[in-house]
Amino acid sequence: MENRFESRYAVSPVEAKAMDTTALRSNFLISSIFEAGKVNLTLSHFDRYIVGGAMPVHGKLSLPNPDDLKAPYFLHRRELGIINVGGDAIITADGIEYALAYKEALYIGKETADVQFESADSAKPAKLYINSAPAHHKFPTKKVTKAEADIVELGSLETANHRIINKLIVNSVIETCQLQMGMTELKTGSIWNTMPAHTHDRRMEAYFYFEVPEKQSVCHFMGQPQESRHIWMQNEEAVISPNWSIHSGAGTSNYTFIWGMAGENLDYGDMDHCAINDLK
Question: I need a surface site. Which of 123, 206, 212, 250 has the fewest CB within 10 A?
Fold first, then answer.
């Protein structure tokens, strides 16, 4: 089976205001993350960010090098972050193997020519969620477990947003050029993530929702603070968040999501907060 690569142009706030549900979904929602035996990638023109997934079942999958990148190999001038949301995985980066269990992360630095993905057990395939951004410097490849993450607990059950933020690929844990990734786990009874909402004009972001129970969904909110829109999302789908957009969600149950971002800085706290009562 062939891998899938898609390129999406950037969208301005003016264009987004006029979009109907179908247009919003086609521009911002990424629904085909995992397909057995494939690597699926979507390039956003917001900061040249790539979102995708690899699902090896029988044998190895190689990280492809789409023609659109016009590079000798994928990571020639890029860095890569991976978080495993499936069965145990083995990732080989230039001949060095890294075992990746559920909810563990791997950062792969610039100039890594050969990357391969494999499931430890084909009956329990790995699901490797991938984010990539342009890179100007070569930093070492490094695995990050949840025990090594920078962990923050926020919110409360009373406001339905009690959550644990696991900062996995961030500058307080490892060195990167601009890529940052982490995972937020909502406690039982909590449904809201990233509330109060915020924007950060200096970098874009992407959300990937998983552990959404069967027959449940997440409503993702986007748009300018006074021109908000929503996209209903299902389990194991991702959404692109432009620099000018809020990014927040509420589920019909608790769930987990992975956030990834890139842009001008590595300051995790660089956020322009929006008061809840000011959202429209």
Answer: 123
pTM for this model (two decimals)? 0.97
Calpha distance 277→280 (Å, rounded): 8
Class for the domain spanning 4-278: mainly beta
Cβ count near 72 (within 10 Å): 10
The model's pLDDT over 32-60, given as tens digits with 9 standing for 90+, comes to 999 999 999 999 999 999 999 999 999 99
Q: Cis link prior to 196 (omega < 30° from 0)?
A: yes
Domain extents for the chain? Answer: 4-278
Tell me, what DSSP letter sits at residue 24? H
- Would the annotation count 158 as a binding residue? no
Which pLDDT tens digit goes with each residue over 101-158?
A: 999 999 999 999 999 999 999 999 999 999 999 999 999 999 999 999 999 999 999 9
The answer to whether 200 is a known ligand-binding residue is yes
The reply, when asked if residue 205 is annotated as ligand binding, is yes
